[in-house]
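Deliverable D4.2, example record:
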Amino acid sequence: MYEQKKSNGRTPYWKQIIYILTIGWIVIWIYRTVLTPIYPIISDYFGGATDAQLGQISSFYFLGYVCMQIPSGVLVDKIGKKQILIPGFLLFGLGALIVGVAQSMGVVFIGSILAGLGCGTYYGVAYSLTAEYVPVSKRSLSTAVVNSGTAIGSGLGLISSSYLVGTGVLPWQALIFATVVLILLAVAMFLRFIRLEKPKKIIKTQSEGTPKISIKALFKPRMISAYILYFSTLYTYYLIDTWLPNFLETEKGFSGTSVGLASSLVFFTAIPGALIFSRIADGIPKKKIQMIILLELLAASVLFITVTTTNQTILVVGIMAYGFFGKLAVEPIIISWLGESAPKGSVATMYGVFNFFGMSASVIVPSLTGKISDITGSKLYAFYLAILIIVIGTLLFYLINRFIGEKNRMAN
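Output generated by the structure prediction step:
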């Protein structure tokens, strides 16, 4: 098969894709997490920014990211993957550079939006590449490997920021400029290794009709259940991503480098969890729905224990457990399960819609959590809300798919 052929007599192209996409996520997530452990330093630099304003740094980034999801998915399907990815990453680099040189919060917000718009091209490219080239029997596991880049990047961003900036070794802008360099290196790598594909021309025939993107196909009950569940999953994940370091420092007694180290455990323990559960899911493809529901409920349970305990050891164990069972563990299974019924010829569009609904949570949660904190004096209530959202989303996912299953059985 085409995707099994080796490039330059060495590694098959589908394996090269896995390595390249993993590195891309590492770069994106270093940028996403590098500021979160040092919010107090950012606040002081800009004259005493409130928690709500600090949360808006992430919210504006994710607003740009979400707004790009559906358009970029459509463009990838129509124009090509590499043709969208390269300009997108260059825009990402420009946005990051603007954040690094900003002298006011308003300019930081503008740079954040541009960085988000640029990063918004990546998701559809990444998972349409894996859907097209990775063998079906290895798709969940391969997706987990690609997603491990998010965990590695998050850990690197949190630890480097809390140590280098939190201890006064470097100014916060230095890490942003270092990220810009990494972005440019990633662009060079994409140019070198990702193949330039010609857009696929769709030929109209009387027997086949004209295949095109169908809104109805994108909003079947199965798809809707996945959109709801993904929103619920990402709401909690981005609460942890943007506010856990600050929560540990201001409400749980952590300080200095320990903030970044403790927060990064979520992402590092996610790697073995994602690889283990994805391998299991590939082995029992008919049980993916049950696995998804189990992982979601386990993640909600351990998160509740984590945020309510006063024991730091239990808290750290809970952080590790959430990483093991949480978003990065369940996401590859959801993506591969959803890809099994992706509309023909519009895979990137489908993933764009899917990620649009999921990532909508990332726009809401940073600033909403900041507002909850400003009003109540604690972020604990924001975590309670996130746990409730996971439970409701999982319940709706279960009910919709149970209804679909019963309807199919009656039809047969």
